[in-house]
Amino acid sequence: MATEIEFEVNGGRQRVKEDGATPLLLALRNNLELRGTRHGCATGNCGACAVLVEGRPVTSCNTPVEAVAGLTVETIEGFERDAVGKALLGAFMNEQAGQCGYCLAGILIRAKAFLVNTKSPSRADIAEALDDHLCRCGAHHRILTAIERAANELSGGQAA
Amino acid sequence: MSAQTISPSLTDNPLCSDWLTFEADGRVTLKTGKVEIGQGILTALVQIAADELDISPDRFDVISGHTALGPVEAGTSSSLSIEVSGKAIRHAASAVRKLLLTEAGTLLQAEMSNLSVVDGAVHVGGRDSSLTLSSLASSVDLGQSVMEFASPKQPGERRLVGTSMPRIDLLHKAVGEHFIQNIALPGMRHGRIVQPPSGVRRLVTFDEAALASKFPDVTIVRNGSIVGVIAETEAVVIKAIELAAKLVTWNEPEPPPKNIFGTLRALDNAPEVTADKGDVAAVTGKKISLTVTKPYIAHASIAPSCAIATWTASDKIEVLSHTQSPHGLADGLGVVFGLDGMNDITVIHKPGAGTYGHSGQDDAALDAVLLAKSVPGVPVRVLWSRADDFQSSPAGCAMVVHAEGVLGDDGRIASISMESLSQPHAQRPGRGGFAEMTNAALLDPPLPVTPVSADVPPARGGGADRNATPLYAIPNVHVQKRILQKWPVRTSALRGLGGYANLYALEGLMDELAEAAGQCPVAFRVAHLEDKRAAYLIERVAEMAGWPGPSGEGEAIGVAVSQYKNKSAYSAVAVRVRLDEEVRLLNVYAAVDSGEAVNPDGIRNQIEGSIIQAASWTLKEALAIDGDRIATDGWDAYPILKFSEIPEIEVELVDRPELPSLGVGETAVGTTGAAIGNAVKRAIGLRLLDLPLTRDAIQAAINK
Predict the structure, then answer these.
(1) Which of A91, A119, B100, B601 is close enough to A149 for a disulfide, judged by CB 3.0 to 4.6 Å?
(2) Are B410 and B362 members of one domain?
(3) What is d(CA B633, CA B623) in angstroms, rounded to the nearest whole number?
């Protein structure tokens, strides 16, 4: 049963007419044509579809769109709007942290939430924070290095 | 040198214009049949072309894997893109430069030796002439022979090749909508089919009325054993196909399938002997044998397979696909639909998530075309479910490998015998005039199934026997394979093919022989290597790893070395492991020699990635088989290596600018697996022969 659901995406107000049980992933990609959020497993197991809801990472594939009514959502399209996003993306490119790149949007989203809340994390802390995200090409080592680098830049080079 | 000797791609695409064209706005279009699957190939190919032309790489656009607009090249496989397409492009670009500069010389009345190119601008005696290669291209016929005009730069003259140019596509792939899974064409509809449990099943019943009553707006497509749906939205398709799957019944396979390993062990068909030297039967000494089993494994791409197909009103087909073989797919679809793959079908590559050989890409394209045929003119997008992608993609082969070595009284290896038992390692569409796609056999009328799928021949590096022939100088060697045909679980190419299991066995045997000889495994290998490049790498990696390191006490280093396909890139890998209840990877070191490095950081990235992927196969991965079907249906059932399980990795490249560039995508998978097996043996004194080395497998081995 389609209903009007309103929420904020990347700073702008959005309204979708959709069955409230439809996954947020499909509403973002198909109703709002924000297709940077990746379709992965559709069961919340791989992390590819992660978005921030009120600043917290959630897997959009198994989050019903009605659950974000009235809330703020950030997708990869809005990623570079703040210093943490800019630092992370710059670090990922500097480290060439990726191969096929499909997992990166979700990992960047998770890394942003993590760095916003964790100053000077250790490499092991970062790895643990990413354990819900799968990468099949084996870019893990570079991804960890890139997040360390971003963390370091954000703390003015003072990080551990 | 002939075109064929330089690159088979130049035989099929002999003209400069097959590879390069210039646009009016000064941009250059580089055309290749090879496709980007995350390995950075398009960046490396642009580097090669830009270097020969002296045009900045940011002026290049790339047409890749487009059957109508690009060159006809074999699929992106076997780590051959640099070796084949790269060489062709280097020669083509050098020929284009020569043709254009000859024209410049005529116009400027200048000697060729007085001309140079600075980012596309022609200079005479070091001063800008106002001519550019692009402007010259409008009056020069590039439809001329590459071979007639090719004169590539010497290694010392190259400026871009050998530098770590950043990937041209990575930023778009991180934040953009770059993937086939993200493409939405105007008017596009969504579709899926109910995948059969396996290729040997046939549909018995389908309650179409029940589906139609619940989803009246959905188009139901039927053809033989295929049941599919098309709808306006993806959300509706997902729900409709879930219901459809409950409304069909399938026959049971006859006869009931047996266990794959028992079947492989019992193979008694005539073996294909792929290496035979001396007489292994005649040698005497201390005999050491081991048998390795490797289960079916999955590509396990992060995104399920996807394709978008349009069947036009004039019976032409256009397919967007992340296939690794656009021309092969076009040919295969031609077989299925009775069309000319060359003229009636256009396949255009669009990037997908990483796949590592022949996964479900081509099958998803067949599904999309099947559905599109019933709605002419309308693009139909098929995105498989995660479960479909595990269960309906070709799997990496299960294998049994017997390895036997004899140590002579002189402490040297007298003989090595290898036998690899497996299904075929490459069953890609379009080969030999057969469709080679599971669902083609389920149509009405059914397409004939390939009678015998030959394994990859030794000339192409072998399939089941890949890397089974020892690189070592051994007087008596016998290598053979037996191929299991007609088995319900479909197999095809997955990174490294048989090389991964063969090296696990062969390099494991080398450690066992060294132990029997009372020698250090590194020194023992070096003593048997006449190949200096391999010998250097194993000594170098041992040094990097601090060999011999700790021994026993649950922590140790293991090593392995090989040359991919015994003719491509070399890798030596050392792995430091700690065993508590399971194998914990602490450090991985790799030393790699791939000749002239086109993009050193790109090579490092490939090596790091292949180490992690092979470590994941070795420690965790096995598809669950239930009779004829793959039972694994999601990530819960198929764990792969996680971020917190990633070791420290150090890769060192030996750059040899004077030697030909060799592909690196697969060279380290076999050495990584083997080095882990050898490290575990040195850590706990047990050689584990049945992959993967899970916690349960370790415990079972300890308790035995």
Answers:
(1) A91
(2) no
(3) 9
A43 touches chain B (CB under 8 A): yes
- Where b means 16+ CB within 10 Å and e means fewer, B447-486 reads beebeebebbebebbbbbbbbbbbbbebebbbbbbbbbee
By C-alpha distance, the chain B residue nearest A98 is: B170
User: Quick one: tokens of B579?
Assistant: 């065993």
Nearest to B355 by CA among B329, B381, B394: B394
ipTM > 0.90 (yes/no): yes
Tokens 């490998």 locate to: B401
CA angle B629, B632, B634 (to 5 degrees): 140
- Facing A140 at nearest CB: one of B166, B171, B643: B643
- Give the tens place of pLDDT for each residue, B182-219: 999 999 999 999 999 999 999 999 999 999 999 999 99
- Within a domain: B266: no
Give how far Cα B339 sits from Cα of B332, B336, B363, Å. 10, 8, 17
Q: SS3 sequence, B436-458?
A: CCHHHHHCCCCCCCCCCCCCCCH
Inter-chain residue contact A108 with B174, CB threshold 8 Å: yes
Q: Is B277 on the interface with A (CB under 8 A)?
A: no
Exposure b/e, B365-386, CB count within 10 A at least 16 = b: bbbbbbbbbbbeebbbbbbbbb
- Do B127 and B203 share a domain, yes or no? no
Q: Within an 8 Å CB–CB cutoff, is residue B166 touching chain A? A: yes
Q: How far is CA B338 from CA B72, B312, B316, B376, B590, in A?
A: 21, 15, 11, 17, 49
Q: How many folded domains does chain B comprise?
A: 3
The CATH number of domain A2-78, selected from 1.10.287.1700, 3.30.230.10, 3.10.20.30, 3.20.20.30: 3.10.20.30
Same domain, B241 and B95: no
- Neighboring chain B residues of A39 at a CB cutoff of 8 Å: 181, 303-304, 383
Same domain, B636 and B675: yes
Task: Count CB atoms within 10 A of the CB of residue A156.
Answer: 7
Q: How many angstroms separate the Cα of A146 from the Cα of each of A97, A124, B89, B198?
A: 7, 13, 33, 42
What residue numbers bound the domain in which B140 lies?
3-169
Residue B286, both tokens: 């201390």
Residue of A nearest to B181 (CA): A39
Are the Cβ atoms of A137 and B38 closer than 8 angstroms? yes
Which residue among A18, A48, A131 places its CB closest to the CB of B642? A131
Nearest residue on chain A to B35, alpha-carbon basis: A100
A82-154 sits in which CATH class?
Answer: mainly alpha
Encode pLDDT of B136-180 as tens digits. Answer: 999 999 999 999 999 999 999 999 999 999 999 999 999 987 899
Cβ–Cβ gap A30/B170 under 8 Å: no
Ramachandran angles phi, psi of B597, nearest 5°: -85, 115
pLDDT, tens digit, 9 for 90 and up, residues B585-615: 999 999 999 999 999 999 999 999 999 999 9
Minimum CA–CA partner of B645 in chain A: A127
